[in-house]
Amino acid sequence: MTPLALDPAGLLGEFYISFWIPTAVLTTALVIKLPSIIRLWRDPLLRAVGGLLLLACAVFVFCTPSTIAGVNRLTGVPNISAPWCYSLITAFCGSCLLLIITWRNGLSDRSAATRRATRWVITVYSGVIAALWTLFLLADAPEERVRDLDTYYATTPFMREEILLYLLAHAAACLITSRLVWNWVRGEGLDAWLRWGLELLGAGYVLNLVFDAAKLTAVTARWCGRDLDWLSTGLAPPVAALSAILIAVGFILPHAGQYLRDRWRVRLAHRELRPLYRLMRAASGDGVPFVLRATPELRLTRRETFIRDVLLPLARHIDTGLGRRSYDAALGLGHPPERARALAAAVSILDAVGAGARTPAPPEPATGPDTTGLLQEIGALSRALRRPDDIEAVRARATAPAKSVAAHE
């Protein structure tokens, strides 16, 4: 049996990724960021993110074969999509560099080096775009090529220079951006979500370098009289699509992760206050009315406010001596100081609730204890209420001396 000939282009066809997939992912990232971009339009970082995502979407929309053919047909100029797509890719490269410069150095950085780097990027990549259109006007490319223009016209005067120019500009931007991102990842003090997002961005830009290598190898092969077009038409497109997906997710992840983490913290804080809230509701006979459309943040604020509003008058019944003895008892039982304070506060509050029920008329306000610490530590107090066995052990130890003295008398 003769071995089957391997067809690289055919094999890569099995792993084809539609350009509309990264377009959808990039559009999702843009939609997620759009409210913040509109609300904080003067923020240069958000504008840079919005511009980059918009250009990335445009690249994949206009580099789709059907769109390339449509633009050529609409303008009546064969291959007019070539300089247009190359310009979008070049603009995207420049926006990547501008974003990393702004993001890495921070909005407060107005140093001469930062301004010089920004001007350099804008000048160079604007010049590249102008050169791309000039070279196209000088070139002779009458036959429309939708999928293989880079290799088909690789040896055509002026088109050859145009193809090489956009690939080198793209490779240089991706190399610089990738290096800046990975240097940033290796730094200290990064939030976990930001680190993961940067790692995805770094991987995406590395894949862009693979795209450039595939394209340049295919073009160079044409110069040498060989045919490696499958690198340009079979390998490069799915690599570019996968790169765009990683970059889009890299932008989404830090913001989505921060949002989910903040939302989880709010819900966790709301849940942790439930035992204390129930105790205050039982003591006051009232509660927070339920509002269907209230945000989690609003519900947490209203629960905290209700608890503090009930604690203030209830604190007049607190036995400060019992609180001190409870704290010492909790320390004697082996609890750390922070936990001992929470258990002592729980014993005092439960005692005050009972005292308030027995004597509805509160004592004079002038004799009331300092409630500043109590009102600030309602979370720790509520968590302590979840352990009634610990509270009872502290109460028993705190009240045992008093009961013993009373018995001897």
Automatic annotation (TrEMBL):
TM helices/strands, residue ranges: 15-32, 44-68, 80-100, 120-139, 163-181, 193-211, 231-253
Keyword annotations of the record: Membrane, Transmembrane, Transmembrane helix
Location of the DUF6545 domain: 263-383
Lineage top rank: taxon: Bacteria
InterPro entries (alphabetical): DUF6545, MAB_1171c-like
Identification of the protein by name: DUF6545 domain-containing protein
Species of the source: Streptomyces dangxiongensis
